[in-house]
Write a structure and sequence with these properties.
Distance between the termini: 47 Å
CATH topology: Ferritin
Radius of gyration: 18 Å
Shape: globular
Order of helices and strands: HHHHHHHHHHH
Structural class: mainly alpha
Number of strands: 0
CATH architecture: Up-down Bundle
Largest sheet: none
Number of helices: 11
CATH class: Mainly Alpha
Number of domains: 1
Oligomer: single chain
Length: 260
Amino acid sequence: MSAWHPVWAALVEPDPATKCRRVAALTPAQARTAAQATPPPAHAVPGRPQRPALVPPRQVPHRGLGTVAGRAALIHAIAHIEFNAINLALDATCRFGDLPPAYADDWLGVAQDEARHFGWLSARLAQLGHAYGDFPAHNGLWEAAEKTAHDVLVRMACVPRVLEARGLDVTPGMIERLTQAGDADTVAILHDILREEVGHVAIGSRWFRWLCDRRGLDADTLFPALLREYGMHLKAPFNWSAREAAGFSPAELAPLKALG
């Protein structure tokens, strides 16, 4: 890995703790040169540990939050999302060239935030007697990265503004359920994550609109067209205030009102 550019090396790193340390050590200067570096073999990206076992989404078990195991399973699922989000942000940093330095700065910052989130959740899992890898998970987030690897505009539309924005919608409900279960420690973590994830989705919105302007495209009409093209469906509940703060326009939010 030492022969690879530091951003690519962090992306390929399979050990979660080492990946997080590599990400924390990255600098904006490194992020700005990553897209010009030679990438590692495609089969090596992304780096992830042998566990958790990856299964189809419907095979990931859902457990009640009335037990420690049930709460640990939920925290594990969120940790898995954050681990994938590290890889997604690193990939966004080094996959696409011909972009302003601020683009790399933004996505390096997202990667470092996601690494911190993963660390918080891993520590919480340890307090409950579990570790990342103890429960099965699915690979949907990275599959979306592969489908959008050909075009940074499509990536900005479909990953931060769809998949990560879904976290804005569902996290308040998780906070409510965990509050009812008396898990104040996890609730505090989720509040912090939600606040920072609004900013991450806003970064996706900003660069999506910047790319649309650069290409002479109308963002408000292109976004739903891309959802249809890539088979992505938005569904209630929606966190309206968070979506507005994350850069969704009134024209984009209007059709969602009919869905809930």
